[in-house]
Amino acid sequence: MEPAVFEHETPSTVIDPGHHVHRPYLRLMTLNMAHGRGNDAYRLFQKGREVEVNLDDIAAVLRREDPDIVALQEADGPSIWSGMRDHVEYLAHKGGFPYSLRGEHVKGMKLSYGTALLSKIPLREPVSVTFHPSPPTLSKGFVAATVTWPGDPVVEIDVISLHLDFSRNSVRQRQMEDLIDILSSRNRISIVMGDFNCEWEARDSALHKLAEQCRLKGYCAGKAGMETFPLLGKRFDWVLVSSDLEFSTYEVLEDQLSDHRGVICEIRTSEGMP
């Protein structure tokens, strides 16, 4: 298999870069924002004003939930079908995030979209990875950056926003191998958030590959009532963390911001962690 395509990007500072988080935990959120289409996620084109209203709804939830770091998928740069606006930059400004990183996994034909991170903590060593093409489905990928644990500069954590192929488990498995290679080379405590397009139960799930090889865990992996993709009643959106971290809260949001539901959680370091 050919290697993944690497695209290095620099986080953009959109408000006061002196802002820092001062609480002994990290509050995290992940959302597949469906190109800012809101409840009309399956409508291909929307006017600029419609998209702005949908983005404002997302920004309002971000302000209400007050996450430190947000992982976004199907996050658009200027695209003809979603108002020709950089959605990540817009949400960073409206939501109050000084730092943002956008990976462009699909580009051309007046389209630009991929995965993204919004953060109130500086994002260091940013990288954007576009997976090897897998036609007929469009390209997927992930962005990763390193953050320092609030109040403890010794603890460095890699945070990833991931989007896997929706159509074939074999493609997801290959994509996961690329992610595992990157995480192994960076050799840090990790948090992986995003739309995995698969559930936990199947033993050949890409979730299992990642969890087993990188020593990650999910919250109540087999628990019912945690569905994030209502149309199919599936739990596709996950937050996975290294074994050195612990979940203290975890919630699937009821807000109808797209065809996916957002996930919000808080994590703490385990006792004895350096």
- How widely separated are the two ends? 38 Å
Please write the string of helix (H) and strand (E) elements. EEEHEHEEEEEEHEHEEEE
Count of separate DSSP helical elements:
4
- Gyration radius, in Å: 17 Å
Q: What sort of overall outline do the alpha carbons produce when their principal axes are compared?
A: globular
Q: Can you name the CATH architecture?
A: 4-Layer Sandwich
Strand content: 25-35%
CATH topology group:
Deoxyribonuclease I, Chain A
Low-confidence stretches: 1-18
Sheet of most strands: 8 strands, mixed
The residue fraction in helices comes out at: 10-25%
Mean pLDDT over the residues:
88
Q: What number of structural domains do the residues give?
A: 1
Record keyword descriptors for this entry.
alpha+beta; 274 residues; disordered N terminus; Deoxyribonuclease I, Chain A; single chain; 33% strand; seven-stranded mixed beta sheet; eight-stranded mixed beta sheet
Brief summary:
By secondary structure, the protein is α+β, with helices and mostly antiparallel strands. It contains four helices and 15 strands. Helix 1 packs across helix 2 (87-95) and helix 3 packs parallel to helix 4.
Topology:
Elements: E1 5-7, E2 12-13, E3 26-32, H1 48-65, E4 69-76, H2 87-95, E5 99-102, E6 106-108, E7 111-119, E8 124-130, E9 141-148, E10 156-163, H3 169-186, E11 189-195, H4 206-214, E12 216-218, E13 237-242, E14 245-252, E15 263-269
Parallel strand pairs: 3-4, 10-11
Antiparallel strand pairs: 1-8, 2-5, 3-15, 4-7, 5-7, 6-7, 8-9, 9-10, 11-13, 12-13, 14-15
Helix pairs in contact: 1-2, 3-4
